[in-house]
Amino acid sequence: MIPDRRSSVRIDDYLAFSYKVIPESQYKAELDLFPKTQSGVEQIETKYPFFSCLQDKYNDIEGDITVSDQVVLDLLVNINDKLDSIIQMLGAGQEPNRFNLCLKKPSFVNISGGGLRFLSDKEIKKGSFLKIQICIPAFPSFVISTLAEVIWTEIQSPDRYLIATQFTAIHEDDRDALIHYIFIKQRKSIRKTKGR
């Protein structure tokens, strides 16, 4: 089998994300259930069914979309997500849904289709298991849920650690969307560099 080299392409970025260290027993249970869960891409397609037809259209004419159209559509989606979040937070006893993650302040990450590196104020030992959610600020923004294993930890300062993880469970359509996002960010970075 040929390895998917796209998964190893990495970028430095600022993304909203959350993680939780989970015990091995919970990790194994969630790993078994993971294939039955809905991907972030599927959730967006369910929430905004008209985007699937727009996505095909926009992929064909990526450079032809006007900036004003993109801005208006982005604002409408953001307003809708914020209203959903406010309504849910006002509901008695309800926890905020995963889309609230996209309203969180972004943090520095190094990301690829195969894993995530991030800074933490707590040490997380090699071999630990994490449940990670990452907001991809594409159009519309969506949340990818993954399971991951810590492959190394590096001390940056007394209260700062660089944590490197490898995704052990990620939906393939989410991985494809993440890789697509990474390539778009790389292309924009190259254009900026050439423009100097």
Q: What would you note in describing this structure?
A:
- With 196 residues, the chain is an alpha+beta fold.
- It has helices at 24-33, 40-47, 50-60, 67-90, 172-195, and strands at residues 11-15, 17-22, 107-111, 115-120, 129-136, 142-157, 160-169.
- Strand 5 (129-136) and strand 6 (142-157) form a beta hairpin.
- Mean pLDDT is 80; it is low at 56-63.
Give keywords.
seven-stranded antiparallel beta sheet
Largest sheet entry: 7 strands, antiparallel
Helix content: 25-40%
| Structure classification | alpha+beta
Poorly predicted runs are 56-63
Order of helices and strands: EEHHHHEEEEEH
How widely separated are the two ends?
41 Å
The geometry reads as globular
- How would you write the strand order of the largest sheet? 1-3-4-7-6-5-2
The Cα radius of gyration reads 18 Å
Number of helices: 5
Whole-number mean pLDDT: 80
Number of beta strands: 7
* Fraction of residues in β-strands: 25-35%
Q: Quick gist of this model?
A:
The protein is of the alpha+beta class.
Topology:
Layout lengths: L10 E5 L1 E6 L1 H10 L6 H8 L2 H11 L6 H24 L16 E5 L3 E6 L8 E8 L5 E16 L2 E10 L2 H24 L1
Antiparallel strand pairs: 1-3, 2-5, 3-4, 4-7, 5-6, 6-7
